[in-house]
Design goal:
764 residues, 5-stranded mixed sheet, 6 helices
Length: 764
């Protein structure tokens, strides 16, 4: 997305669809010039940067943010910024760490946690950053300081390739020529948070440019034993001359995150800072090298390319309760360790041009990844802080190698049927091979069988229409299809008889089918006055052979195809901008349901084994129409910013969410009896209010502050039914007194952060 002036020519060439871009530099069909000029928001609608269409002429409810907009909310990370301002977006704070949020959009997720059913693709400067091993997204490895803008494109857009079941999040970084000057920001406050960000960009000569950014984040955390540390570096340079340009960027990140996860409601009622067991530590180290090039040839033909190399090393350390505790094995705890190495690289190219009333695009891409994974465990004793100590010798449980290769070909044709009516036909062919090889069985003598391979082929079509009924009203509608092939972690953990401990052991692997999603969307958008805008959209996405992680409580479980699911809903927005006051009101309704019967493992549900439809031990019967867990049906958001003085801004952000079902209660039949089963199976709705303020002392020097959770609400963003082995004070109970309980993800209490920002060089 970028802001750029365009001559107001007939809409026959100025418009495009969500699945069909008009490449940058591409010649439009000839038309009479118009003397008027306006500023349009242009949205990149293919993975390869360099192309785009005006946002107002995309046949979907595309939502955009730029750096200044999320700066106003003073959000720490992308999920927080999106959840604060955009409809149909919510987060689950499952780990209780600000960098380990699960982002939900229209019922689909992008999460750093294995076991979350991933359904959103995330692109950074044309590179898909969903990790190949499990399609997870590590938010701590995205350089937020260097981001220029983003676009959230809904639907199963096939042009964004695998995992685009519910939408694609497209991120673009800054450059030295578009963002000249420097900026230094420091911040501190509640929970021992200390953060620093430094960036600088400039042009080099007539054609070159360079940009660099560094950020650091340290926090003690608001819960017990929950410190975190994040470091990010970003460097980008390039040249622009005539009809050609190129950029080369290096993104590097290192982090140590402690996210101590869900806790029983009884323990939180006694002390909301309590954790269940510890530690739950994740360490990431990632390097990404990206090249982007664009060349415009004769006749308006434009060639764009992206190439990348990516390396990730991740390790986890999880202290857990020993579920196999008995008199012969007195060890009360077990420590799980994992190490993962991901090496990935890819190349994509896109050719675009116009022929008469047609704007044609043809693209190819090839991505491959190689993975290594090791998991070990060691039993020990839980100490008074519920950490595992006095460890015995560690045993290797799994040692595998995995690989995935995807080759794709896509094409689209934007047909200008009339000056105010456009049709797009597009499609993408994907061929994916996924393989896992058990190297531990041969070298370590493990009793495992993890060799597997799968080949997944799919052609996904899309079509859409936009109609500019009047200058103040546009109608849109379309259909799109996307698919997701199982990742190596899902193939290697798909046997219900041998559940895995995520992100740990893998077991034998019944084959999984790829997920296919089909989306229909229609809507209207327009303006009631020059500064009052509105939009309304309705959508439905049907998933076939959806893959979910079936948990037996806590982290253990397996991946399985559970049949068909549906996400459908409505989004409404109304916004106004003026010299003194800006505001936006957004409402969304989400109906996310199972569409076919399913038998899911949930031993802690009071209704387990109560139905003749499911004969497996600890299973519950889920009927069509039951709600998917972890997703609120209603959300309402109000953002407001007032400028009482030219240099002073005051803002507020209100977000209200309805209740949601917890994992393990997919049949919505949990009944608490206060003896063996505790918890209603549902997390209550909640409303949060944040306050922000900015004051510019002199040109370039600004003070800012934020109060989060102003009214200090006690709330939870998700939950799960599981076995609780501790009393309300955190003391270990005898095994005979363990009981089924509701674990929840508690939200952070009221917090205050203050900081200063200094802009130097460039334009202040």
């Amino acid at each position: 997305m970028r802001l750029c002036p365009w001559p107001l020519r007939p809409l026959a060439w100025a418009t495009g669809l969500a699945c069909c871009p008009l490449a940058q530099g591409q010649e439009p069909p000839s038309s009479p010039p118009s003397p008027a000029v306006q500023t349009l928001v242009v949205v990149g609608t293919t993975p390869v940067p360099g192309g785009g269409v005006p946002k107002d002429q995309v046949p979907a409810h595309v939502q955009t943010l730029d750096a200044s907009q999320w700066r106003q909310t003073q959000s720490l990370n992308l999920p927080e910024a999106l959840a604060t301002q955009l409809p149909s977006v919510s987060v689950n704070e499952t780990q209780g760490n600000p960098y380990q949020l699960a982002l939900n959009f229209r019922g689909f997720s992008a999460s750093p946690l294995l076991g979350t059913p991933q359904g959103l693709s995330v692109y950074l400067d044309g590179v898909r950053v969903n990790e190949p091993f499990g399609d997870v997204v590590n938010w701590d490895m995205i350089p937020t300081t260097a981001l220029a803008d983003l676009a959230l494109l809904p639907g199963s857009n096939p042009l964004f390739g695998l995992n685009t079941l519910g939408g694609a999040l497209v991120l673009n970084t800054k450059s030295g020529d578009t963002d000249p000057g420097g900026e230094l920001e420091v911040q501190g406050g509640s929970f021992g948070r200390r953060s620093t960000a430094l960036s600088y960009g400039r042009a080099l000569g007539d054609h070159g440019h360079v940009y660099g950014a560094f950020s650091s984040f340290d926090e003690d955390g608001w819960r017990d034993d929950s410190p975190s540390r994040v470091r990010q570096w970003f460097l980008k340079g390039g040249q622009r001359w005539g009809d050609a340009s190129w950029t080369l960027s290096l993104n590097h990140g290192q982090s140590t995150l402690i996210g101590n996860g869900l806790t029983p409601e009884a323990m939180l009622a006694q002390d909301r800072q309590q954790i269940y067991t510890r530690p739950d530590q994740t360490q990431n180290r990632m390097t990404l090298l990206t090249f982007n090039g664009m060349r415009r040839g004769d006749g308006g033909l434009t060639l764009s390319t992206t190439a990348y190399l990516r390396r990730l090393r991740a390790s986890t350390l999880n202290g857990d309760l020993n579920d196999d505790l008995d008199e012969e094995d007195p060890n009360t705890g077990v420590e799980h360790r994992t190490r993962t190495w991901d090496h990935s690289e890819g190349l994509s190219a896109q050719l675009a041009g116009s022929v008469g009333a047609h704007a044609l695009t043809l693209g190819v891409s090839y991505d491959q990844a190689h993975n290594r994974f090791e998991q070990s465990s060691a039993e020990g004793m839980l100490d008074a802080s519920r950490a595992v100590s006095e460890l015995e010798a560690a045993e290797v449980d799994a040692k595998i190698r995995g690989s995935s290769r995807t080759a794709s070909l896509y094409a689209s044709d934007l047909i200008h049927l009339a000056p105010a009516l456009q049709l797009t036909l597009s499609g993408r062919y994907n061929q994916t091979r996924v393989r896992t090889m058990d190297v531990g069985r041969a070298t370590l003598g493990l009793d495992t069988q993890l060799d597997s391979q799968g080949r997944y082929v799919k052609f996904n079509p899309a079509a859409g229409l936009t109609w500019q009924i009047s200058p103040a009203l546009t109608a849109f509608g379309g259909f799109s299809q996307g698919n997701r092939a199982p990742s190596p972690i899902e193939l290697g953990c798909s046997d219900p008889d041998h559940p895995c401990v995520l992100p740990n052991a893998l077991q034998s692997d019944p084959p999984l089918r790829q997920v296919v999603a089909r989306t229909w969307e229609t809507g209207l958008r327009g303006q009631l006055s020059p500064d009052l805008h509105w939009s309304a959209a309705a959508y439905r996405t049907d998933n076939r052979d959806d893959i979910l992680f079936i948990s037996n409580g806590h982290a253990a479980g397996y991946f399985a195809n559970v049949g068909n699911t549906r996400r459908q809903g409505v989004e409404l927005t109304l916004s106004r901008k003026s010299d003194v006051l800006d505001w936006q009101l957004a409402y969304s309704f989400l109906d996310a349901t199972f569409r076919t019967p399913a038998c899911l493992l949930s031993e802690s549900n009071s209704s387990a084994e109560a139905s003749a439809a499911c004969t497996g031990e600890g299973e519950i019967a889920v009927r069509p129409g039951k709600q998917l867990p972890g997703l609120p049906r209603h959300s309402l958001k109000l953002t407001l910013e007032v400028r009482p003085l030219p240099r002073w801004r005051v803002g507020t952000q209100l977000a209200a969410y309805s209740s949601q079902w917890v994992h393990g209660n997919e049949n919505q039949a949990q009944q608490a009896d206060g003896v063996a089963y505790f918890g209603s199976g549902k997390v209550a709705g909640y409303t949060l209010v944040n306050l922000t303020t900015n004051y510019e002392i002199v040109d370039g020097l600004e003070l800012f502050a934020k109060v989060a959770n102003l009214f200090n609400r006690q709330y939870a963003t998700g939950g799960q039914l599981a076995v609780n082995a501790f009393d309300a004070h955190g003391s270990l109970l005898p095994a005979a007194d363990w009981h089924n309980a509701q674990f929840v993800a508690p939200g952070a209490p009221r917090a205050l952060w203050v900081g200063a920002r200094w802009r130097f060089g460039g334009e202040l």
